[in-house]
Specification:
By secondary structure, the chain is an alpha/beta fold. It is built from 21 helices and 12 strands. The protein has a 6-stranded mixed sheet, sandwiched between helices. It has a 4-stranded antiparallel sheet with strand order 2-1-4-5, covered by helices on one side. Strands 7-8 form a two-stranded antiparallel sheet. β9, α19 and β10 form a beta-alpha-beta unit. α2 packs parallel to α6 and α3 packs parallel to α12.
């Protein structure tokens, strides 16, 4: 817990000026507020006795008291302002760090977590850190200052009674610490369930058509109810454990206040010599200080409850920040020239070490060849692409591009040699032109139009409300096929030396697909191309067809050659055209 707190505080170091200002104004504001009981006690002593009210001194005290109250309020307002600046600047940096971290972690980490869970850590957990840790600092620091200040004043007024207060104080700390420790685990589990809930909600909302089509509504609600009930149960437990801190400390503080009142009254009447003589005004001041002294313990107990929740959220955030990053390879050679040749040499790879996938995979591709990869689901087709682009690193073996081992060149320069169109489309919020120029932001408007015409996207784009300046997004109403055309136009604009088409035309009608195949044929001319396809009619004219099964190439050759062999490929092909 303390290590987590130290890490959060380390984020505040660049804004030390706000922290120092917070401390200065807290000392000034709390200091002035602590003088108020002293002046109230003096005012009471001015009124003791029939017909002996000192109105001149009383008037002076009231004016000074009013000035102190106003000044204390101003100082504490400035303190809160500085603390808010400190808090929001700190969590801004923390949120930026976790976002940048997600850009640098291996892809397997992203694949291993739901989008909702990661979103929850970036947004919800950091907001909780702000509320529970950073903004709670104001209340916590003010409370500590108040406790220390009131104790000093009480010592000056009556050392003996103050000593009784100090002796009874540890009871509040003992009670709070025991309860805080018990509630920590509950808040940790609550944070995990919150992430699960956000992930499920995002999954259901983002795929509502599928949910409705498969009548999954009831089961989705049942899944959500299970998590929601668990979240409610653990939330009640965590809240109960943390909330009993306040009444327990209030009870202890009430005992302290009652003891002070009793001993102070005995001192005023002179009944007990141990207490020492006190005036009514001094007793009034002491009781006021005693109340101020015990009140911060109640506030601190509330801060502890928020602190537990915030620490749990901070640990989730730091778990992401502590993840192993993809090693920096900026010092490696950049792959600037590529002739399109590549090879896989005895490559082995598994997502799960216990389940072997790619085994002794060997492939030699010459420049300009069009390579089609086919096979049943899960045979390793897309995995080959993941390894080629180094989204995942191989377990053993070697991959070369233009004769250079991919491990010896930078990832960015390697990936810049490929243009990739996936089955899943991705459209970001922006204009159509910006989406097409995603990989080539300096492209001219004419180049964008030319690329769109080449993939037969120009027609539907011109029919949009503002043409190429129309703002679109994933939910903008475009069909899946139209989104795919925009994605294909991106690659057409970049014109990279090597192409990867992973079911790139699966969402497009047959007439448009026929046209795009012509465009791809023109684009692939002289370029090495990898085509992953389930629709085998689209890869009949490939130079080489690789037939994969269980991570290995079991057949290799042209379409005609493989059909003559009457093997696994012929069986797949004939099954698609069986009547």
């Amino acid at each position: 817990m303390f290590d987590t707190l130290r890490r959060v505080i380390s984020y505040a170091k660049p804004y030390i000026a706000y922290l120092v200002s917070t401390i200065i104004f807290a000392v000034a504001g709390v200091g002035l507020s602590l003088l108020v009981p002293v002046f109230i006690g003096d005012a009471v002593d001015c009124c003791i006795g029939k017909g002996t009210v000192d109105f001149d001194d009383l008037k002076k005290i009231v004016i000074e008291l009013a000035v102190m109250v106003v000044a204390s309020g101003i100082f504490q307002w400035i303190m809160s302002l500085c603390t808010n600046k400190l808090a929001f600047l700190t969590i801004r940096d923390m949120r930026a760090d976790i976002f940048n971290k997600l850009e640098r972690v291996p892809l397997k980490y992203i694949d291993g977590h739901t989008k909702g869970e990661l979103t929850s850590r970036v947004i919800n957990d950091i907001e909780i850190i702000s509320d529970g840790l950073l903004q709670g600092f104001t209340q916590f620091f003010s409370s500590i200052m108040t406790i220390a200040g009131t104790l000093i004043f009480m010592m000056f007024i009556n050392f003996r009674i103050a000593l009784v207060v100090v002796i009874m104080t540890p009871l509040s700390f003992i009670a709070a610490s025991k309860i805080t420790k018990a509630s920590h685990d509950s808040y940790m589990k609550q944070s995990r369930l919150r992430g699960d809930m956000v992930g499920l909600a995002e999954e259901m909302a983002g795929n509502q058509k599928i949910v409705k089509a498969f009548v999954y509504d009831k089961r989705a609600m049942e899944r959500f109810d299970v998590i929601n009930k668990d979240y409610g149960k653990i939330g009640i437990k965590a809240t109960f454990l943390s909330s009993i801190t306040n009444p327990v400390t209030r009870f202890v503080n009430g005992m302290i206040y009652a003891s002070v009142g009793l001993l102070g009254a005995l001192g005023v009447t002179g009944s007990v010599g141990f207490v020492g003589a006190m005036t009514v005004g001094k007793l009034t001041s002491f009781l006021s200080f005693s109340n101020q002294y015990t009140k911060p313990f109640n506030e601190i107990s509330g801060v502890f409850a928020e602190l537990q929740n915030a620490v749990a959220s901070a640990q989730r955030v730091f778990n992401v920040l502590d993840e192993t990053e993809v090693p920096d390879d900026s010092s490696k050679e950049k792959l600037t020239e590529c002739d399109g040749s590549l090879s896989f040499e005895s490559v082995r790879f598994s997502y799960n070490p216990e389940v072997e996938l790619i085994k002794n995979f060997t492939l030699d591709v010459k420049s300009g060849q069009k390579i089609a990869i086919v096979g049943p689901t899960g045979c390793g087709k897309s995995t080959i692409i993941n390894l080629l682009l180094r989204f995942y690193d191989i377990d053993s073996g070697r991959i070369t591009v233009s004769g250079k081992d991919v491990d010896t060149v930078t990832r960015d320069s390697l990936r810049s040699q490929f243009g990739m169109v996936l089955q899943e489309t991705w459209i970001f919020t922006g204009t159509v032109a910006e989406n097409i120029a995603y990989g080539m932001p300096d492209a001219t408007h004419e180049q964008i139009i030319q690329a769109s015409k080449a993939v037969y996207a120009h027609g539907f784009i011109k029919r949009l409300p503002n043409g190429y300046d129309t703002v679109i997004s994933e939910d903008s109403g475009l069909s899946q096929g139209q989104k795919q055309l925009i994605c294909i136009a991106r690659i057409m604009l970049m014109s990279p030396p090597m192409l990867i088409l992973d079911e790139a035309t699966s969402s497009i009608d047959l007439r448009t697909e026929h046209r795009i195949q012509k465009a791809f044929t023109k684009l692939m001319d002289g370029r090495t191309s990898f085509i992953i396809a389930h629709r085998l009619s689209t890869i009949k004219h490939s130079d080489t067809i690789l037939v994969m099964k269980n991570g290995n190439i079991i057949e290799q050759g042209s379409h005609n050659e493989l059909m003559q062999e009457s093997g696994f490929y012929a069986e797949l092909y004939n099954s698609q055209f069986a009547t």
